[in-house]
Amino acid sequence: MDGYEVARAIRADAELRSVHLVAVTGYALAEDRAKSKAADFEHHLAKPVSIEKIEEVLAAFGLIQWS
User: Fold this and answer.
1) Which of 17, 41, 49, 62 is the most buried (most CB within 10 A)?
2) Do the beta carbons of residue 39 and residue 22 sit within 8 Å?
3) Where do the domains of the chain lie?
C-alpha cells in the first residue's frame, strides 16, 4: 500500500474523514501534485521541507497559532 492508497482509505473511513493529510515526498512534478490532490491530500510538500513551511501548514489547519 502506498501513501495514495493510505490517503484514500482514510478518506473512505467516516471516523477518519476529518484527519488532515499532508503528502511529504521527494516527488514534486505537476503530475505528482495531481496524484496527491486526487488522493485527497490537503497539501503536497516536496522534500526537503523547511520548518517554516511545516509551521505554515499547521497554522492553516488551525493547529498552531502565532503569538
Assistant:
1) 41
2) no
3) 3-60
